[in-house]
Amino acid sequence: MSIDPRVALEAFTAALEEHLAAASARRGPGDPAVEAAFFAVADAFEVYDDSLYEAYGEVTGLGVLDEDSDDDEEEDVDDEEDLEILQ
After folding, report:
1. What is the pLDDT of residue 87?
2. Separation of alpha carbons 1 and 71, rounded Å
3. Can you say whether residue 3 is alpha, beta or left, with left for phi > 0 and alpha for psi between -120 and 50 degrees?
4. Using the 8-state DSSP alphabet, how is residue 68 labeled?
5. Which of 83, 18, 78 is nearest to 44 (CA)?
6. DSSP secondary structure string, 11-66?
7. End-to-end CA gap in the chain
8. What's the whole-number average pLDDT of the chain?
9. pTM confidence score
């Protein structure tokens, strides 16, 4: 089932608005409303990116960080350094 990218974009934008509202009303570290809004943004973004790809064969070039992203970032830095040497 494909989702229209425009509909997915609207949901993504709404999730960003909700995240801003939750962040501005934050009640301290680990506020569950901010955490829930964060995950809603991540989910809405993935739906948008997938729908964009399905409809047009395009992606945003952005990605959602996960818990393992620290390891991936270290590998990316090494890869970028290798590319600089090759250029």
Report:
1. 47
2. 34
3. beta
4. T
5. 18
6. HHHHHHHHHHHHHHT--STT-HHHHHHHHHHHHHHHHHHHHHHHHHS---S-----
7. 43
8. 86
9. 0.73
Mean pLDDT of 2-25: 97
- Residue with token string 């952005």: 62
Task: Name the nearest CA neighbour of 64 among 36, 41, 87.
Answer: 41
CA distance 24 to 1: 35
Q: Which residues contact 11 (CB under 8 A, 6 or more apart)?
A: 44, 47, 48
**Residue labelled with tokens 């964060």:** 38
Q: Which two tokens stand for residue 42?
A: 């991540």
Chain-centre distance for alpha carbon 39: 9
CB distance 3 to 10 below 8 Å: no
Share of the chain above pLDDT 70, in %: 75
